């Protein structure tokens, strides 16, 4: 199911059954001369689409423009960077709207800057916005003092369960630390080029590697679809277990 193409009946079904609503969080970022600018977006989108083929989820519109940073390429590289505070406010409003609409099982899937699941700026923006939106939604709908009320006396028993409001929005990597350790992970090198090649073959052009030399793209010549398919397989297994 795709949210853009759905109607109220489908949305109500997803909400009542607590079916995951999944958002691919992407970037527009320079990935050397051989990978397309949408690499991070396409990997997240590709895995989410494949997940929808094996598991019932609803796919929400992708968020592409984000705090990609100019760490890899400068302002003239083609990278689009949205400052963190502006981005956090933007996704805060998205999350708050989804909560008011009745969604209670939301996931954001990110591929960008998630080495070893480190907390980097874009991930932190999503997570902070999620907590802000949830806190304000609860205060606006339940009133101030909601947590201290007798109706929430079982709060600690509900933590991490389906009724925990702070589990309504989760931010997860495309590849867990375990998957990264098993298959490899990099930026526009052998591994990222391989997974992009497996998911979107026309977005990798290895013959262009000679256009510009970068230390981080030197291993990309070894990229291959077979490695990419294994990365996809392990990533999907992780996502299928995590997105529930």
Unreliable residue runs: none
Overall geometry comes to: elongated
Judged by helices, strands and strand pairing, the structural class is: alpha/beta
In the CATH hierarchy, the architecture is 3-Layer(aba) Sandwich
What is the percentage of strand-forming residues? 5-15%
Distance between the termini: 15 Å
- List SSEs in N-to-C order: HEHEHEHHEHHH
Number of E-state strands: 4
Lateral arrangement of strands in the main beta sheet: 2-1-3-4
Kindly provide the radius of gyration, computed on alpha-carbon positions and rounded to a whole number of angstroms. Answer: 19 Å
CATH domain topology: Rossmann fold
Structurally, the number of domains stands at: 1
CATH class: Alpha Beta
CATH superfamily: Creatininase
- The number of distinct helices, counting runs of at least 4 residues, comes to 8
Question: What's the short story on this structure?
Answer:
The chain is α/β, with parallel strands linked by helices and about 240 residues long.
């Amino acid at each position: 199911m795709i949210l853009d193409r759905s109607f109220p009946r489908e949305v109500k079904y997803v909400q009542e059954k607590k079916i995951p609503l999944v958002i691919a969080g992407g970037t527009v970022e320079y990935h050397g001369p051989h990978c397309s600018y949408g690499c991070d977006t396409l990997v997240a989108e590709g895995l989410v689409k494949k997940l929808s083929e094996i598991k019932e989820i609803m796919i929400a519109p992708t968020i592409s423009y984000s705090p990609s940073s100019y760490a890899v390429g400068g302002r003239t590289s083609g990278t689009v960077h949205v400052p963190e505070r502006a981005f956090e406010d933007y996704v805060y409003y998205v999350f708050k709207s989804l909560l008011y609409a009745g969604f209670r099982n939301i996931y954001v899937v990110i591929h960008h800057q998630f080495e070893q699941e480190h907390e980097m700026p874009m991930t932190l923006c999503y997570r902070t916005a999620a907590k802000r939106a949830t806190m304000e939604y609860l205060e606006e709908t339940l009133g101030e003092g909601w947590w201290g009320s007798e109706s929430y006396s079982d709060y600690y028993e509900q933590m991490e369960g389906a009724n925990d409001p702070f589990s309504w929005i989760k931010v997860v990597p495309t590849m867990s630390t375990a998957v990264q350790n098993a298959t490899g992970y990099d930026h526009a090198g052998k591994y990222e080029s391989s997974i992009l090649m497996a998911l979107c073959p026309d977005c990798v052009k290895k013959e262009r590697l000679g256009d510009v030399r970068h230390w981080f793209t030197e291993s990309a010549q070894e990229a291959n679809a077979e490695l990419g398919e294994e990365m996809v397989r392990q990533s999907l297994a992780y996502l299928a277990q995590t997105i529930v």
